[in-house]
Amino acid sequence: MRFSSSRLAVLFVVALALPLAVPAGPVRADSSQAPAKAQGRITVTGRGHVAAAPDMATVTLGVTTEAKTAKAAMTANSSQLERVMAGLEGAGIAARDIQTSGLALNPRWQTVKPSGERKITGFVASNRVTVRVRQLDELGSVLDSLVQAGANTVDGLDFGIAKPGPLQDEAQQKAVKEARRKAQLMAEAAGVTLGRVISIGDGYVSEPQPMMRSAGMAEPISAPVPVAQGEVNLSATVTMVFAIKP
Question: What start and end residues bound the annotated signal peptide (predicted)?
């Protein structure tokens, strides 16, 4: 194919014009897509504690009986426990505050010498009830009356708060204040300015309370049981994350 001199001149001019359509200078990315600079943070844990006098007690007590046969052991146990339940009612303990927490019947074994053979010589029956006592000033007298009625085992005594909500709120407030104080102290030591709260999380932890060890009571108590109620401790823990101002 042949082109005239005039057509060659037009093609040459178009070829020279095409590069002019490409924008001059480097291509810049959209500034909105650039990664943001990571902001510094301070993470602290604060704890708050509140101590208060308890207003209720939970006691686990019961009856243990032995007999030659299983039936006799259970019969004696049921009869003795009925007297204990009547004693609870007489002490003004409401039915909602009494719950059966353990019932057991076990053989009593004895090793026969010299053969070493084991044989059953009797049975042991036990029944436990967990009781909430809401009048602490009567706790000693209640325990004494229950022992007089036939309770011969006390498995545990724990003090508590019937409505712990307000105390938990107070402990949480103290925990938040402690966390903020620590964060401010750390920021000042690091030479930075403390910023807004990014996140906060909480969790309650109950302090362990002294418990009465399991003890048999073969003989009736002649005087009200002395009880020291002390204090109940409630604690709250919070974890807070603060921003560091740029």
Answer: 1-29
